[in-house]
Amino acid sequence: MVLRRWLGVWVVLTGLMLSLVACQPATPEQAFLGTDIRHETFGGPLALTDHHGVKRTLKDFRGKWVVLFFGYTHCPDVCPTTLGDTAAALRLMPPEDAKKVQVIFVSVDPERDTLAMLRDFVPYFHPDFLALTGTEAELAQTAKDFRVVFSKHTTAGVGGYLVDHTAGSYVLDPEGKLSLFLPFAMPAADMAHDLKLLMHPS
């Protein structure tokens, strides 16, 4: 009799435990480490000239995940750090995924960033990286399209000039739509994580 009663209690408890397990929420989706901006609608055609002298627009990169960064070759820290970290992120990804990414560096210093200088600077970090430049008017419009700010200034006692500019990179999907904003100094492993998550969301 006692044994039968304990068996009944065990059956009830087992049923409750199974019910609780079934009611548990599904494992949450992995979160992006950058900022999800897929709801944003700004951007533009990116009609500029690449470091080979070829006219380009964003449509040329359809089918690729584009990592878009604005900077200049004389930048003392932010630009080389970002390009180096982005190259490291691609090396952390499976080769077949890395090939789906096009990194684009848009110069905000057309006065000094000649095509020859951009050809020497940008591919140094990765042979597939591409630089874009244009006239002051073209670059001003592109910066406005992507809500990027930049301004030239000189420092007393220092030769040349510096350019303050938005630090961080945009990721655009294969249709050219905004996906993520990756902040400056984001670790390469975190970049790779977000890019892989975009490519393989499930």
What does this structure look like?
- The protein is an alpha+beta fold and 202 residues long.
- It contains six helices and ten strands, in the order H-E-E-E-E-H-H-E-H-E-H-E-E-E-E-H.
- The protein has a single domain (35-55, 63-153, 161-199), classed as Glutaredoxin (3-Layer(aba) Sandwich).
- It has helices at residues 2-23, 78-92, 95-98, 115-125, 136-145, 188-199; strands at 35-36, 48-50, 55-56, 65-71, 101-107, 130-133, 150-153, 162-165, 169-172, 178-182.
- It has an eight-stranded mixed β-sheet. Strands 7-8 form a two-stranded antiparallel sheet.
- Strand 7 (150-153) and strand 8 form a beta hairpin.
- Residues 1-28 have low confidence and may be disordered.
Features:
10 strands; 21% strand; 6 helices; Glutaredoxin; alpha+beta; globular; disordered N terminus; 202 residues
